[in-house]
From TrEMBL:
Name of this chain's protein: Acid phosphatase 1
Glycoprotein in keyword set: yes
Range of residues in the leader sequence: 1-33
Organism name: Dichanthelium oligosanthes
The keyword Glycoprotein is assigned to this record: yes
Alphabetized InterPro entries for the sequence: Acid_phosphat_B-like (IPR005519), APS1/VSP (IPR014403), HAD-like_sf (IPR036412), HAD_sf (IPR023214)
Family the UniProt entry places it in: Belongs to the APS1/VSP family.
Keyword annotations from UniProtKB, A to Z: Glycoprotein, Signal
């Protein structure tokens, strides 16, 4: 009898495992805006593929340039990285470094010591959007529609850094390549809803800078800030194009983004 029960349990376990594996490979994509933990576990393969880890390190080190989409075998890996804690752990580590550095810089009484922060996937997360799009190539119309909803979640470690910088007496400028004409109301509303209130200026891309690369546009913005007398002490972005060019700041901090590349 005991042996029969044991065999029965073993069969049941096998059935459950097979069912689980089949289900985990066929879960639908998360609905846009759905919490990332909802569709568990990550599907799509590549979850622990060492080649995908190499690809991500290459991307973060800026050795890969101009890539247009996550390689198909690594979609599952990127989903897992973004949704299962490592991404937020990595952002937290960057923020720790930025805060430690900021603590060593004493802002002068003239109020001209400043930090520059990017918006997309630095202050606000587009993870729900890109996850729903299977981390596919950039789609300007669809992204604009998503961003115009103003529902991007704030990235918690960056919310903390933002408040810390303000509390230390730094000026905080938020600089984004988002189009001012179409996203000029949803972006500040989204930032405020996500805990980013009280910055000194939000600079968006106007008609005069349409078509410029992000690096050219942001270099011009920082050059203007420097011309106004601001000393950029730190600069935080998820793209190397946020952190290269002119007047980048005394130190730059790159937060991870294996979802897309902006030149
Ligand atoms: Mg960005």
């Amino acid at each position: 009898m005991a042996r029969s029960m044991s065999a029965h349990c073993s069969k049941l376990t096998t059935t459950l495992v097979v069912f689980f594996l089949a289900w985990s490979n066929h879960v639908p994509e998360a609905a846009e805006g759905a919490p990332s933990w909802f569709w568990w576990p990550p599907s799509g393969g590549g979850g622990d593929d060492p080649n995908c880890l190499s690809w991500r390190v290459m991307v973060e080190a800026n050795n890969a340039k101009g890539w247009r989409t996550v390689p198909a075998p690594c979609v599952g890996y990127v989903r897992g990285y973004m949704a299962w804690g490592q991404y937020y752990r990595d952002v937290g580590s960057v923020v720790d470094q930025a805060a430690a550095y900021a603590a060593q810089v004493a802002p002068a009484d003239d109020g001209l010591d400043a930090w520059v922060l990017d918006v997309d996937d630095t202050c606000l997360s587009n993870q729900p959007y890109y996850q729903a799009k299977q981390f596919g190539p950039y789609d300007p119309a669809a992204f604009k529609m998503w961003a115009s909803r103003g529902i991007c979640p704030g990235i918690p470690a960056m919310q903390w850094l933002f408040q810390t910088l303000k509390g230390r007496g730094f000026r905080v400028f938020i600089v984004t390549g988002r189009d001012e004409e179409t996203l000029g109301s949803s972006t500040p509303a989204n930032l405020a809803a996500a805990g980013f209130s009280g910055y000194d200026r939000l600079v968006m891309r106007g008609s005069g800078s349409r078509g410029q690369s992000s690096m050219v546009f942001k270099s011009a913005v920082r050059t203007q800030l420097a011309a106004e007398g601001y000393r950029i002490r730190g600069n935080v972005g998820d793209q190397w194009s946020d952190l290269q060019g002119d007047c980048v700041g005394d130190r730059v901090f790159k937060v991870p983004n294996p979802m897309y590349f902006v030149p």
